[in-house]
Design brief:
By secondary structure, this protein is an alpha/beta fold. The protein has a domain of about 220 residues: Amidase signature (AS) domain (Amidase signature (AS) enzymes, Alpha-Beta Complex), CATH 3.90.1300.10. It is about 35% helix and about 15% strand. About 55% of the residues are buried.
Length: about 475
């Protein structure tokens, strides 16, 4: 059931929030043992909230699953890491306060790549999450649990975070809708930071309408986050069905080159033609600095991660090594024992590019290229209303398929991370299925990108493109 359908039933008295929660708990017990999307959930606490649910509110009585790097008072916030395996959050993130103000009930902690560093959820230190469409395959990442639960119908909707594609890529692999808002559209207060200039919280849902409903609830300014914009929040539902007639949609040649699986290309091109049949004008465009996006991202993101993760020192909270010989030994052993290999890799890389003698050669240069990438999008949006592309070069690969090749994994984000560098919104919409590497009927996602704060138009185009696979 979607949010909108459940809301109709709740208002009509055909079901109750408690019944919805109990049904979800039953589905989790029946199926999540194989999928592994949930790290934990507290049914008793959720039922207590449900007893006081205000059904007159936009999300009144609707349970929403939460990625395990978003703080919810009294609940675990492990970030998929042994470092925070026993950490209990002492406060609510702003998005959680806003969800509750809209009547929603946070329910369940969703598995993820450790500290959101990864594209497969294989980097979780706590458990493996599997793709509901094929349990031998990854769900994508880092918000793999959030996407897999929605695809497996063990969650009605969920929140994830997107630093370089971590909402859109798992949404594509799992066949659900995943929205990354503009940078500054949604508060990051209470999101455990990976890369502060790139991170953004957004919804994963079954439909575009549900994504609009959640974005409506969580968007808006926040004095607790200085990067969150105090800009007016439009009514995202009002123009959702206005269609695409007369809109210009750009097709970047750099996103349709070599390396794309033929089945992905076929489905994405079919979705583009379907929008053209509805009256959209398809316009070829160029984003010339795309080839530098991966290198730029993997300088900036690890640099910010190196700084942000320095707070995990074994002193204030999280894992603390036993019997250190001195304070330096405590730092070293706590971080060695607490962090997984991918997190260590990115901390080392980030520390290197920020070090004396290399800062200008790598970090400063990457920031300059980031500006060029943002200008590419500004030039393109002067010509078109939105940009269309694949979300990922291929459908979900098999679990373990890139375990010894981090570079291959980094390249899987080639179509998504430029939006984070530019700060623009993007969405993944299911656009069919294809066979890949022995797998049958694997989901494919269409990516739609819009100008900064252009979520209303983005959702309108996505609604027109919505195709059930």
């Amino acid at each position: 059931m979607t949010i909108s359908k459940l809301r109709q039933q709740l208002v009509a008295g055909e079901t109750t929030p408690a019944a919805i929660l109990n049904n979800l708990a039953g589905e989790i017990s029946a199926r999540d043992g194989q999928t592994g999307a949930y790290l934990s959930y507290n049914l008793e606490a959720a039922l207590a909230e449900a007893a006081n649910a205000d059904l007159s509110l936009p999300l009144g009585g609707i349970p929403i699953a939460i990625k395990d790097n978003i703080n919810v008072l009294g609940q675990p916030c492990t970030c998929g890491s042994k470092f925070l395996e026993n950490f209990i959050s002492p406060y609510d993130a702003t998005v959680i306060r806003k969800l509750r103000a809209a009547g929603a009930i946070p329910f369940g902690r969703m598995n993820q790549d450790e500290f959101a560093m990864g594209s497969s959820t294989e980097n979780s230190a706590l458990q493996i999450t599997r793709n509901p469409h094929d349990p031998a395959r990854i769900p994508g990442g880092s918000s793999g649990g959030s996407a897999a639960a929605v695809a497996d119908f063990t969650a009605i909707a969920s929140l994830g975070s997107d630093t370089g594609g971590s909402i859109r890529q798992p949404a594509s692999h799992c066949g659900v809708v995943g929205l990354k808002p503009s940078y500054g559209r949604v508060s990051r207060y209470g999101l455990v930071a990976f890369a502060s200039s790139l991170d953004q919280i957004g919804p994963l849902t079954q439909t575009v309408e549900d994504a609009a409903l959640i974005l409506q609830a969580i968007a808006g300014g926040d004095p607790l986050d200085s990067t969150c914009l105090d800009a007016p929040v439009p009514d995202y539902l009002s123009g959702l069905n206005d269609g695409v007639k007369g809109l210009k949609l750009g097709i970047p040649k750099e996103y349709f080159g070599e390396g794309i699986d033929p089945g992905v290309r076929k489905n994405v091109e079919a979705a583009i033609q379907a929008l053209a049949a509805q009256g959209a004008e398809i316009v070829p465009i160029s984003l010339p600095h795309t080839e530098h996006a991966v290198a730029t991202y993997y300088v900036i993101a690890p640099a910010e991660a190196s700084s942000n993760l320095s707070r995990f020192d074994g002193i204030r909270y999280g894992h603390r090594a036993a019997n250190p010989s001195d304070i330096l030994d405590l730092y070293q052993k706590s971080r060695e024992q607490g962090f997984g290999p991918e997190v260590k890799r990115r901390i080392i890389l980030g520390t290197y590019v920020l070090s004396s003698g290399y800062y200008d050669a790598y970090y400063t240069r990457a920031q300059k290229v980031r500006t060029l990438i943002r200008r590419d999008f500004e030039t393109a949006f002067a010509q078109v209303d939105a940009i269309l592309s694949p979300v990922a070069p291929s459908p979900a690969r098999k679990i373990g398929g890139s375990s010894n090749d981090p570079l291959h994994e980094y390249l899987s984000d080639i179509f998504t991370l430029a939006a984070n560098l530019a700060g623009i919104p993007g969405i993944s919409i299911p656009c069919g299925t294809t066979d890949f590497d022995g797998g049958k009927n694997l989901p494919v996602g269409l990516q739609i990108l819009a100008p900064h704060l252009g979520e209303a138009k983005l959702l309108r185009i996505a609604k027109a493109a919505e195709i059930k696979s």
